[in-house]
Amino acid sequence: MPQIMKKVYLLLTLFSISVFSQKKFDNIKSEKLGEERRITIGLPPSYDAKSDKKYPVLYLLDGDYLFDPFSGAVSYGSYWDDIPEMIIIGVHQNKDEERYDDTTIDQNEGLPFEKGAKFFEFIGSELIPYVEKKYRTSPFRIIAGHDVTASFANFYLYKENPLFSAYICLSPELAPKMEVRVAEKFAKIQKPIYYYLSAGEGDIKKIKEPIEKLNSNIKIANNPLVNYKYEVFKGATHYTEVLHSIPGALYQIFEAYRPINSAEYNDKIAVLETGYADYLEKKYSIMSEILGVQIPVRMNDFKVVENLILKRNAYDELGKMAEIGNVH
Length: 328
Prior knowledge:
This protein has twelve helices and ten strands. By secondary structure, the chain is an alpha/beta fold.
């Protein structure tokens, strides 16, 4: 490649990064921790252009090493409109291995203790209010972590009103009694919760066995309000399973957001005897009321349902389709 072309290519690359990547850093002075904590912030490409748009927020514990893989997956998925754009907040916990102090627990009670209790309060009473005051956020919050921080994320489920709507637990090193307490919470929960759990086939035995118990207990709880998925990745270790898990977690949580594809059409819509327009309305209702994503009904989704209605001679549903069309 000629030298001048190399320079042009480099400039274009740098320009693209500056336009489409809004990754920056901030320091939060925490009274709870008695120190400053560094965070990485990722803003969606459309953040500046769409000044009235609000975004779901993905909070990453172990943000030092989870931010980039999650950011890449979100960028790819949102490019194809399979998942929405979102704000990503990565909490730094590995400069001096703070993650172990941050996740300190009482081994008898199985609850945050000392520095762990302070870190628990830092997330809920300092970090979240800081982010929601500074950025345009929707009410839909996701939290994710890996091993000890994945386990720690579950403590927010113990609250009467959980702080987060979705939990991504990657090979969690579960706290004592957690495999029972999380399932008990799910049995009683009265609002939609998304929960993704994963492990590697070659995961550490002392980690994997409690995860298997948790999986069994959640299945017994069997609450339809809990959107739950558990994956074990063949040939993956405690560390390599993370890259397998991230896309699966995001696609599970935002399944309702995706444009209607052949699988959704065949498995969920075409099998209905009636209620096609209701299905379309509910799909977008879940987006707005639960996922916090406000978008008009996509023309393709509308046409897919409309064509099925005509094919099934369900003409009485055209009135409802007209209403949906008028609104959007």
